[in-house]
Amino acid sequence: MPEKAVAAVKGEGEAEAFGKVTYDKAGTYTYEIFERDLDDSYVGYSKDNSVYTLTVTVNDIGGKLAAKYTLTKNGESSDALIFVNKYSPKTASAELEIKKQIEGTAPAEAETYSFIITGGEGAETTITITGAGKFTFGGWTYTEAGVYSYTVSEVKGNADNCDYDNTVYTVTDTVTDKGGILVISRNVTVNGAEVSDITFVNTYSDDSEVTSPEDESSETGSPEESSRIPEGDDSKEQTTSEDSSTSDSSAADSSSSSADTASSKPSDSSKTESKSTAASTNTNDSNPKTGASKTLAGIEIVLLGAAICVLKKRKNNK
């Protein structure tokens, strides 16, 4: 066996030697060389799980022992014993909190809002939320120390009555290695001024037009105006025509009745004429625009002519 079964190395470089091995007889000697488990002082370092096999063959040549060796790593030939320890500090997970505020008359149905996160190398990520409130987004991990910056801005929507927030936030994450553990320190700024959080405020304006009672009155008109019939309207002509037809029918009936009266009582013809004239005058006064005066005047002439004819006939009979 070697003088020492354990060989140590500090940092990078060659380990101390195991020491000399003395063989006193011929034979084959096999040794396994591997790395021990790392203790807690090696936070962030990975263990090399390679296993080397050293085979020493001792031959007796003319009374003298001669040794030669072969080295394999995980079953494959190797020229040297090399152990590689990779340093990987404990990763740090990052998340982003965005606040959305709405001012003014909010829409009845919650709208969606989109934001773009742009990294230092121009890589973009779009995130979408619905309505107002606080939203937390995660999903990326820092694997090594360094300074990482990115910007956050809102994508302008399509609502015409909404004033979208055009603020651009700059987020700077400083990642430090503290004993094999990565720690994040964040700083948020707007135009170089530090702010406490990322808040986007959208303001909605009310575009609806409210009609006052005065406006409605002027548009619809007063009840009296709406009930009037404009001059020259077809409905007026129809009413006048109906009134004229009614007057003609009444006049015909009056003519027949007056003729009979004149036949039986010729002495009352003057009274009949007087009554008809009075009736014509009264009807004309009560309907100055209906044209009934012309019709009644015609009736008056017919009645007068009928009365004269009856009187002449009676006179001839006598």
The whole-number mean of residue pLDDT values reads 75
- Provide the helix percentage: 25-40%
Structural Rg: 60 Å
> What order do the strands of the largest sheet run in, or round the barrel if closed?
7-6-9-11-12-13
Number of domains: 3
What is the CATH level 1 assignment of the largest domain? Answer: Mainly Beta
Number of strands: 14
* Element pattern in H and E: EEEEEEEEEEEEEEHHHHH
CATH architecture of the largest domain: Sandwich
Gross morphology: rod-shaped
Structural class of the secondary structure composition?
A: alpha+beta
Sheet bearing the most strands, described?
Answer: 6 strands, antiparallel
Low-confidence stretches: 209-213, 215-230, 232-294
Beta content = 25-35%
Counting DSSP H or I runs of 4 or more residues, the number of helices is 5
| CATH topology annotation of the largest domain | Immunoglobulin-like
Ends distance:
185 Å
Describe the structure.
The structure is a single chain. The chain has 318 residues and is an alpha+beta fold. It folds into three domains: 1-88, no CATH class; 92-204, Immunoglobulin-like (Sandwich), CATH 2.60.40; 233-317, no CATH class. The chain is 28% helix and 34% strand. The chain contains five helices and 14 strands. The strands form three sheets. A six-stranded antiparallel sheet has the order 7-6-9-11-12-13, with no helix packed on it. It has a four-stranded antiparallel sheet with strand order 1-2-3-4, with no helix packed on it. Strand 12 and strand 13 (193-194) form a beta hairpin. The longest helix has 31 residues, at 234-264. It starts with 26 loop residues before the first strand and ends with a helix.
